[in-house]
Amino acid sequence: MRLRVAGLLLATALAAEQVSTRVDVYDDGLLRAWMPSVRVSTEGPEWALQGGLAIDSLSGATRTLAPDAWSGATRFTDRRKAGDLAVTHLRPEGSVTVGWGGSFESDYHGQSLSLTTQRGLRQDSASLVLALSGGWGLNSAQGADSSDLNLGVDADLSQVLGPRTVAGLVLSGQQWACGDQLGCHASPYRYVLVFDQDEPLFAARERHPDTRSRVAVGLRLSRSLSPIAALHAKTRLYADDWGVKGATVTLNPALSLWDDRLLLRATVRGSGQTGASFWVAQPQLTDQGVPGWRSADRELEPAYNLSAGLEGRWTWYAPPSRASELQLDARVQRTAFHYTDSADRQGWLAGGGLHVAF
Fold this sequence. Notes:
- The protein has 1 helix and 18 strands.
- The chain is mainly beta.
- Strand 14 and strand 15 form a beta hairpin.
- The model is unreliable at 63-73 (pLDDT under 50).
């Protein structure tokens, strides 16, 4: 399978109309990741093909659970190889896309298949895009195999409110059905320390429910402030049947200079959420044994995050005989993670890339 996908990616690269490559670095004190990647794409009147490759080098310190207590930090290094490939059939009224994705580490393998269909409707100053997606994933790690099926529905409505303002509304829903060994979105690497009162007893692999449903609504607003300045704002509210409820607010002021050759954009984002109904910092051993549902996933813990970043992009237009467009971009972002039970973290993300369109 990986050889066939690599061959398709190579064929896409040879016929590519757009090529992008970038390197990003993330560091939060416990984890450091170097993330080089490349993406290629080509598009014809009825078909489009795109794919990507990434090789991430991970290093850092992780806490290892001992039978009776938390041990000290343990150093680790690993390398992740990931790829994806998508084929799209373009039609006047919409599109159909078939995709594959894979992630491979020294002791972890994950692959997924997806099918997405989109249909667009336009009338006067409004447009509506409807999307239906389905997917299947298979993960294998540490002797534990898990699979999941997912179905998603999205509706994206855009409305021009005036010569300088555009608004949007997004409604989405997702449903997951997962294997009964780990449950949805659980990791074989994560273990939960089980307590008797305040005394830690032993570590049990996390276990999540076998199904999950989520709904979300998003609002966005883009406003031109001047010929060179604009403000983009969006918010997203979401909830699921695990008890997680949250909201995200993002502001993006942007400047376009030198005939749109230089784009500067800042990002300020804040988010917060409640925890899953089965999230417990110290799960207790009872007469019935270990709690059936237990989690060490910080994505399910009550938390709020704040981040701020700056991105710049320079575009150079070449004569028709050479690359028609070349873009250089760079970004830096600082994020603070606050959890009610786990230790807070602060991380940096920085990187840059090159994009060429022929």
